[in-house]
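Pasting as-is:
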Amino acid sequence: MHRDLKPDEYALYNYFNKTLWSKIDNQPADFWQEVDHFKQLKKNVTKFCEDFYKLLRNNPKQFLTLISGIQFSHAVQKQVFRSLPLSHQKMVCVALAQPGRA
């Protein structure tokens, strides 16, 4: 793919690619262990977020129970709310209007 670039663009790409790998080769011995650690961390965070979103979309009542004690910023609340289908938005509004919720 990168070979489809114009000669000047490829020369620039090639230079920075070699520079990058030279810097990587000069990292401490535990560099790849750290890379693996962050890959696993990313995988765990992605799974958590996907599971959280599935619960939100598939069972909003259970979701509300789960998060009832968590304080979210207004911006996060708005973003989550807007990501719901309209029928779920109505359910959330009804649940939040019940006494003891807010």
